[in-house]
Amino acid sequence: MAKTDTTVVARQKRIKRIRKKIKGTPERPRMRVYKSAKHFYAQVIDDTKGHTLVSMSSIDKAIAGDETKGKCALAKKVGKLLAEKAKSAGIENVVLDRGGYIYHGRVKAFSEGAREGGLIF
């Protein structure tokens, strides 16, 4: 079943509204989240330079061979691994950009995993 135009347009409006308030700085970069039907993606972005500092997804090699069941458990694992990568890159504080999604389900599991990994937001 395809998404309707109104659903896509509404999410794009939410993304713009969130991005007006959230900016990633070198001291506190923006952690962006995207979820598809099967996979979960996240990246840490410095908006002043326009560069992605760290990224992780559920199709990454570190997770691909894992037998984690359930989308929420997979998102939590992505959060933990992203936090480890960010800590090794010297990033401790981030601001969460939930990408127009509500803070529920996979987005919430991801953020809990990132917090367990040591990120502060």
Output the structural class: alpha+beta
Rg over CA atoms, rounded to whole Å, is 14 Å
CATH fold label: Nucleotidyltransferase, domain 5
How big a fraction of the residues is strand?
15-25%
Distance between the termini: 35 Å
Molecular shape: globular
Number of helices: 4
Give the name of the CATH architecture: 2-Layer Sandwich
What's the story with the biggest beta sheet?
4 strands, mixed
Number of β-strand runs: 4
What spatial order of strands do you see in the largest sheet? 3-2-1-4
The H/E string reads HEEEHHEH
- Average of per-residue pLDDT values: 92
What's the structural blueprint in terms of helices and strands?
Elements: H1 5-21, E1 30-35, E2 40-46, E3 51-57, H2 61-64, H3 71-88, E4 95-97, H4 106-117
Parallel strand pairs: 1-4
Antiparallel strand pairs: 1-2, 2-3
Helix pairs in contact: 3-4
Task: Give a brief outline of the structure.
Helix content is 42%, strand content 19%.
Q: What do these coordinates show?
A:
Helix 3 (71-88) packs parallel to helix 4. A hairpin with a 4-residue loop joins strand 2 (40-46) and strand 3. The chain has a single domain (5-117), classed as Nucleotidyltransferase, domain 5. The chain has four helices and four strands. The longest helix is centred in the middle third of the chain and has 18 residues, at 71-88. It is of the alpha+beta class. It has helices at 5-21, 61-64, 71-88, 106-117; strands at 30-35, 40-46, 51-57, 95-97. A four-stranded mixed β-sheet has the order 3-2-1-4. It starts with a helix and ends with a helix. It is 42% helix and 19% strand.
